[in-house]
Amino acid sequence: MRHGNRRLDLLLAFGAASFLMLPWYRLDSGFFGLGWLGDYPLSEQSAPGVLQLLGHGRLWLLGVVLFFGLGFAARFIADPMRRGAFFSAAGAAGLVYLCLQGLAVGFSGWTWAISETLFGPLSDGQASMGAGAVTMAIVFVLMFAFGLVERGVMKGDAFVVGSISLLVFLVFVFVFYPIGSMLVAAVQDFDGSFKPDGFIRNLQDPGIWSLSCLIGDGRCGVAWRTFTLAIMTASASTLLGLAFALVATRTRFPFKKGLRLLTVLPIITPPFVIGLALVLLFGRAGVVTEALSSLFGIEPGRWLYGLTGIWIAQVLSFTPISFLVLIGVVEGVSPSMEEASQTLRADRWRTFWRVSLPLMKPGLANAFLIGFIESMADFGNPLVLGGSNGVLSTEIFFAVVGSQNDPSRAAVLALVLLFFTLSAFLAQRVWLSGKNFATVTGKGDSGAHIALPRSISIGVHAIVIPWMVFTVVVYGMILVGGFVTTWGLDNTLTLEHYARAFSVSIQNGSIAWTGVAWNSFWTTMEIALISAPLTAAVGLLTAYIIVRQKFAGRNLFEFALMMSFAIPGTVIGVSYIMAFNLPPLEMTGSALILIACFVFRNMPVGVRGGIAAMSQLDKSLDEASLTLRADSFRTVRKIILPLLRPAITAALVYSFVRAITSISAVIFLVSAEHNMATSYIVGLVENGEYGVAIAYSSMLIVVMITVIAGFQLLVGERKLRRENRVAGLGNNNPVPLGQEKTA
């Protein structure tokens, strides 16, 4: 118990220091800039909590002192069960009180009209929470966790209980609180009173729900337009992804390495660049448009600017993701089951449709879900190609930053978008729940995958080859577009766009980054390099808890974490603006809000990758470490992490790439000081500077390819143990599938 008491003592000392020494409220100059030390601790802005209470009249901080004092008193209770109960109760009550007082008191007084009615007006308000208040909130969370440890919860493992408590707290703050704030803002007036008029008016807007297009009288509402587009994109990308996966694994297609390269390119491409390339091809001054006009006299049209153009761009963008989801599923179908079907005299066609394809259902469902959510959340392609056919993501953007300036409408549209994506997410889980698709067991399996039926083989080749050619042409346009003076008007080759974006000069003996893109480029690299390891750490820690620990509510815990995947980036951006623009947490305009957005937006990928990798590690490794009296933290650090290097690398790469290419959430959160690359490129596109935009995008693609290649060299290839021959191809030489890289 002496070790436990020392842990409690350190926590209490940390909490006391946060209240007595750290600035309680947010500093305009920033905490880490240390500029606040000049007038510390007497100024009202930089004063610690104790001086805010005693010297500046912040009497509501008495509750913080009270609950922390109760925890301090509970420390001296001899019985560990009673000590733990009092300690955890004090921590929970203190955290709830700290959050409530932060929400209730704003800059100028009470935030809620009901508070002023009950308690009377306040003479002064408070700023947003600063280092002291945030640290005290974490102390209260750990007080609650360590109190449970004292009572023997999770076998008294402080690392596990503390990790679960902190993760739940962080997910609540950065996922559920913003969504709740958006919902509240939709039915709230400027003075904080309940006023649902704007919400009801916008919810009943025919422009959202109209179905007049079904009777040929006008256009569908933006909700059904977006939903229809998402269904079309998800269906097409899933079908194409399956065709690509079958060609890569079940045929002797000679360009498989090139096929895999083409599947990686759209993932590392900024989301609106494909839309730009399509404009260069099929716009009114595009290559194909002008060729058709000169050869056949076809008048240039605007067919590309609408749902057709958005659909083509989205299918190009999201098919590679479907392929990456499906290739592992196609490879994972057990050859022995296919051989058993043929042994029972089923032909290749019947075996494929009745055995192989049904076993791919989880992958098909996941690919469709990803395509649906990505289409719903896509912002860049609709912005470039949408024309007058807006979708939910662009309508939300214009409701916030356009001439409408209608936060209530933005909140309603975001809730509609969230409803669609969460419905798809829940429907997919319900459809797959209770079904078993396992085909890989611990037994050896050295069978051979059957060859595709001839008609399917011809069909998938007929789909894949033209699509590969089309993708190469699109990316060729991206490459060429950065070297043309003005596309369609002056096709003279030039380096002017690259020089304007990335010029460098020597001034006063030092390097001067004079290009217009350097500022946003370095900001993007800095934020991506900070957020990537944080995302990997949070995701893998969560995976460890889900796989290795058993506790009440574990399934709910996992579902809550994974639900953030189903929240579109546009909704995240709007909700963060509404939640973190005012007390108690004010982060808008800072790098911190971008980092938090990336970490909790991309965390589910790290969680799923960690779960998949950790499920392959025998629990006896953990048990042996714990038997040798190592605690959970040491076991994770010395045993688990070294065996998870591929999963760690995958999480790092994905987080880094997404931080560079994200736009739907970033467009709402950037500031003049912290402008991200994608947001800057959108500004270039809106100003018609396509050449500079494409040059910048090309540079980002080169940077990401370099980073991914570096990580791939560090980790190496993964080899599949099973070396199968593709049966029925007339080739007696084995085709080792494991020779190909798997991402």
TrEMBL record:
Domain ABC transmembrane type-1: 223-428, 521-711
Predominant cellular place of this UniProt entry's protein: membrane
Keyword Transferase assigned: no
Entries under SUPFAM superfamilies matching the protein: MetI-like
UniProt keyword annotations, A-Z: Membrane, Plasmid, Transmembrane, Transmembrane helix, Transport
Gene3D superfamilies referenced in this protein's UniProt entry, alphabetically: MetI-like
Domain of life from the UniProt record: Bacteria
The keyword Hydrolase belongs to this UniProt entry's keyword annotation: no
Pfam families per UniProt: BPD_transp_1
Annotated compartments: Cell membrane
Membrane topology of this protein: Multi-pass membrane protein
Transmembrane annotation, as ranges: 7-25, 59-78, 85-107, 127-146, 158-179, 227-249, 261-283, 303-330, 351-373, 412-431, 464-489, 527-547, 559-579, 591-611, 647-670, 690-715
InterPro entries: MetI-like, MetI-like_sf
Record family assignment: Belongs to the binding-protein-dependent transport system permease family.
The protein's name in its UniProt record: Iron ABC transporter permease
Species for this entry: Peteryoungia algae
